[in-house]
Amino acid sequence: MSADGSGRRPTRRRPRLLPYLLIAPTALALLLVLGYPLVDMVVLAFQDMTREQLFSGAAPPWAGLEQFRRVLGDGFFWTVVARTVVFTAVCVALTVLCGLFTARLMHRASPWVRATIAGMLVTVWAMPVMVAASVFRWLFDADYGVVNWLLSRLPGVDLARHNWFTDPWQGFAVIVAVVVWGSLPFAAITLRAALAQVPPELEESAVLDGARPFQVLRHVVLPTIRPVLVMVTTLSAIWDFGVFNQIWLMRGGQPEREYYLLGVYSFIESFAVNRYSAGAAIALVTVVLLLAGSVVHLRQMFRTGEVE
Amino acid sequence: MRRRRSLGHDLLGLLVAAVIGFPVYWMVLTAFRPATEILRVPPEFWPGRPTFDNFARALRTETFWANVRSSTLIGLGTVVLSLAVGALAAFALARFRFVGRKAFVVVVLIVQTVPLTALIIPLYLLLNDVGMTDSLLGVVLTYLVFTLPFTVWMLRGFIAGVPIELEEAAMIDGCSRFGAFRRVVLPLLAPGIVATSVFALVQAWNEYVLVYVLLSSPQKQTVSIWLVSFQTSFGTDYGGLMAGATLTALPVVVFFLAVHRKIASGLTAGAVKG
């Protein structure tokens, strides 16, 4: 889409050096704040760093594979991994489904209804995570939360003074709600833009040929918006896998073990227990697991030609 | 294309909008409510007598203005630095083909997928080594981790959207390459730059974990930490908390509403074309 072959350009003088000079500051900055810490994290995972070395500045002793042996050999770690994967899957599925539903609805509704939904979505998109978590904590408050009161209106339900966080399953339901609420706007707005690209003639002719609504969605709409759908799914997965803030805040900065996801686990091992190396080992495993997701993301980016 | 629109879709749409917007409505409503009305069962869904008591209480907390100042400084610092550095790389990616370009793009894309929580430990140790914990500059530098990649990526998209012929015409008319960039590309790029800046500003304003770990003196901490401390120090003062939440969200929402179209198109540029 942009330049093709710099030899054709008016300036022929320093075309070979200039781009490198331009990317140098970014490359340097990324190397410093990202490259070095990433390498350091890997190194740290093979050492045994505690509070002692942090304050004395002494080099931490090598531990070889000890951290990994301990972390990977701990049944609790695998519980957390499984929990994180399930949590991510649920959040992503709900985000994409709700996003698709909202986008379809915006596509069909009158302009003023569409504008109303869009306004709400953008407002929610802008909400800081910490604000969202605070608000949901209030909505789901045991004594005066509006959700308990509303649900108690349903016949046969009595949730007066019900504490959602006593049972981790219910607690996670609330956390999933915050996460999905927060990521819905990006999904819905992006998918809505994609839906606008679906040629209406295609849908109409499918309907004329006798396709039912679900078949239109499955065979006409979804294939057209597939690239965007894949992008939204992978990006949501990457974000949800690293969820930390919502859990941290909703559990008042002291999450119980039942509420650990990989991000929380790694953080607590490092900064609450001061076993920095164990935390680094957990973080390393997290990054490796995430790389799988990134591969899908990158392949999609390359396939759509965006990178070229 | 005029597709058939039924009343059903509109009603369903309004219901969805109401559900999505309800938490925000409830936040603002609670923020303006006197304490006696907040803790009432059954809850009242319409505004009664609004009061500014909760806001007054939130604003009176000791460190509020210091924290706003600190958040603003960090936000502006992050934006200026990532724009200054990122715009150059974005220009290179949009306008040149060079060996290693693809590799650079891959790095920029991969970097965006590394979760921040994984980097906290080494970033903390790095700043600890150079004595920059509890320093706003240190925070700004670490924020480059997540603002720089998307600044490069979004600006690249916006620059690619400016036809190269304009630049070439300016150069034929005697501009240097830099002059052509400054006089032709930059003005056309202004909306994209504003959108990118706002997005970076919002990210910096909202970030919590890194500042929580890095900044220890209460005066230097940011509003997101202030908001969290609200919940512990005030117990369940939901009126004050919702007032604080409203104050924290307000600047972000205003900025965001102004530029969201550009952000949406910048984040998804290209993917839709597929």
Automatic annotation (TrEMBL), chain A:
One of its GO terms (cellular component) is plasma membrane. It is found in: Cell membrane. Keywords: Cell membrane, Membrane, Transmembrane, Transmembrane helix, Transport. It comes from the Bacteria. GO terms for biological process: transmembrane transport. Signal peptide: none annotated. It is a multi-pass membrane protein. Residues 81-297 form the ABC transmembrane type-1 domain. The keyword Flavoprotein does not apply. The chain crosses the membrane at residues 17-39, 76-103, 115-140, 169-191, 228-249, 276-298. Gene3D superfamilies: MetI-like. The keyword Transmembrane helix applies. Belongs to the binding-protein-dependent transport system permease family. This is ABC transmembrane type-1 domain-containing protein. It comes from Kitasatospora cheerisanensis KCTC 2395.
TrEMBL record, chain B:
CDD domains: TM_PBP2 (cd06261). The keyword rRNA-binding does not apply. One of its GO terms (biological process) is transmembrane transport. Gene3D superfamilies: MetI-like (1.10.3720.10). It comes from the Bacteria. GO terms for cellular component: plasma membrane. Keywords: Cell membrane, Membrane, Transmembrane, Transmembrane helix, Transport. It is a multi-pass membrane protein. Residues 68-259 form the ABC transmembrane type-1 domain. Pfam families: BPD_transp_1. The chain crosses the membrane at residues 12-32, 73-96, 103-127, 139-164, 184-205, 238-259. It is found in: Cell membrane. Belongs to the binding-protein-dependent transport system permease family. This is ABC transmembrane type-1 domain-containing protein. It comes from Kitasatospora cheerisanensis KCTC 2395. The lineage of its organism: Bacteria, Bacillati, Actinomycetota, Actinomycetes, Kitasatosporales.
